[in-house]
Design brief:
275 residues, alpha/beta, Rossmann fold, seven-stranded parallel beta sheet, 8 helices, 9 strands
Length: 275
């Protein structure tokens, strides 16, 4: 029997990068996994390539009704939600005196508002079964993992918007942990350091994504990429598989007494050895 047999998981932003690695790890351990991305074709390809039971939902989660639609799709197909991983996100970097209101708001929307709406959407499907289990004297743990960043916990020059959004989701995590602990819903966050993804790749013309018909530049300057390994005690960036491992820990039964915490997955980068 696999560790997560019969569990149903939602992983937002899971067609690429950390999200995909997480979805693969959950599926490898028996979970049924919802794959989500803006791009239907990429999400479908990822779902096809992952062994196990998968479902695809493509859509812009920043649209107010989309999180509820995503959750309803899972309920219609599988009838339950055991694990929610709020991973979807991107960056729009600029120094603060050159940053637009729109760029600031967009980072709050995807990194704080979307996780809030996703948590609200799964609420009845996690809380109501838990109430019945409590009446029966049973403990059944469910999991919510919010993806943050050391940019949110420690700040990062050029990322006032991203840092604010990632800091906001930490507050959301800790508050929800206080509200939903009584239902045995573990709510935690992971704060990633330098992980090799599109967001930390070279900042060049080929590294973009499209949102609502607009191209968004991703990546960081090469001089910063070269400096980063010198600031990481383990001597290198992390892989998406290593990042997924941190998330998986918080989805596993081994985390049943870990609650309201921020797990730093950084290789020690920027003081990541301490909270």
């Amino acid at each position: 029997m696999a560790l997560l047999d019969d569990k149903v998981a939602i992983v937002t932003g899971s067609a690429r990068g950390i999200g995909r690695a997480t979805a693969e790890l959950l599926a490898d351990n028996g979970a049924k996994v919802l794959i989500n991305d803006l791009d239907q074709d990429v999400a479908a390809q990822t779902a096809d390539e992952i062994a196990g039971d998968t479902l695809v939902f493509a859509g812009d989660l920043t649209k107010p009704d989309t999180p509820e639609q995503l959750v309803q799709r899972v309920i219609e197909e599988w009838g339950r939600v055991d694990i929610l991983i709020n991973n979807a996100g991107y960056t729009m970097d600029a120094v603060i005196h050159k940053m637009s209101d729109e760029a600031f708001q967009r980072m709050l929307d995807i990194h704080t508002v979307v996780p809030f709406r996703m948590c609200r959407a799964v609420a009845p499907h996690m809380r109501e079964p838990a109430k019945k289990e409590r009446e029966e004297g049973r403990e059944v743990f469910r999991k919510i993992v919010n993806v943050s960043s050391v940019s949110g916990t420690m700040g990062n020059a050029g990322q006032a918007n991203y840092s604010s959004g990632k800091s906001g989701v930490v507050g959301l995590t800790k508050t929800l942990a206080k509200e939903w602990g009584q239902f045995k819903i573990n709510v935690n966050a992971v704060a990633f350091g330098y992980i090799e993804t599109r967001l930390t790749a070279s900042k060049d013309e080929s590294n973009t994504m499209e949102i609502g018909g607009e191209k968004v530049q991703l990546g960081i300057p090469d001089n910063l990429r070269q400096m980063a390994p010198m600031l990481i005690p383990l001597g290198r960036p992390g892989t998406t598989e290593e990042a997924a491992g941190g998330i998986f820990l918080l989805c596993s039964p081994w985390s049943n007494y870990i609650h309201g915490q921020v797990l730093n997955v950084t290789g020690g980068h920027f003081g990541g050895m301490t909270s």
